[in-house]
Amino acid sequence: MAAHVGASRTPQEVMEHYVSMYIHGNLGKACIPDTIPNRVTDHTCPSGGPLSPSLTTPLPPLDISVAEQQQLGYMPLRDDYEIEYDQDAETLISGLSVNYDDDDVEIELKRAHVDMYVRKLKERQRRKNIARDYNLVPAFLGKDKKEKEKAPKRKITKEEKELRLKLRPLYQFMSCKEFEDFFENMHKERILRAKIRELQRYRRNGITKMEESAEYEAARHKREKRKENKNIASSKRGKEDGKEGEFAAIENLPGFELLSDREKVLCSSLNLSPARYVTVKTIIIKDHLQKRQGIPSKSRLPSYLDKVLKKRILNFLTESGWISRDAS
To answer: Which of 7, 137, 289, 295 has the fewest C-beta atoms under 10 angstroms from its C-beta?
Structure first.
């Protein structure tokens, strides 16, 4: 500007004239607000913007032996694997070329291919970050077991293990530390809810001080113990009287007194009256003895005896030694 005005003005004088006349003058007061809002968005912020360096900075290579690298197909200098996620992603751009005679449709199509390839690269890197954050490679190689033994933590119950499995899809949205904090907070929440229910139970029973709760719990424990002992005693009495009660359906029928304990159980399970069982038993044993003597059997089994009942009774008589196995 000083060169355009002429040699009579120095650059410093030109700047002072502009500031005094246009910025601090009437024109500046009318056009320039007192506070200028910052409408610029920093896309290079380290927290994960589109141009954040954290998205392009490579991760440090895995600290694994050469044999383990060969087992995984891992190349530490490139931080790549022989078989990556979506191995054929490069085919989207391998055949692309820039030609001066391309029309707008062809250019947009090539841009779409490049955009698809970039998305696949981001997904590939995201999966690597998740595997690195959750130590999936040491877990695959069996190294995490030694680290868990060195760092003792509270014992995780079976319910918590099942809950962790249900929450596993959240791994892709949260870092390892965030997920562990979330899981521990859920554990604290369950403890607090149980404590609140316990205090509410104390309040319902008229207890307003913690000193009274110990006496209440001791009395409740004694009460439950007496109730448990009473239930055990009643169950023992029930077992002693249970045999007759078990056969209540057939004990008043004729022929019940002729049966042994095992035969009573059989008739009760088959819902068969003692008289009919004795009849079938007599016929089967008689036929068995006649066959052993070489006499042809002419007796017929009753019509109410189907194949299932006949098989059950034959097996029972064979196990009890009334007839031999070849006859059954």
So the answer is: 7
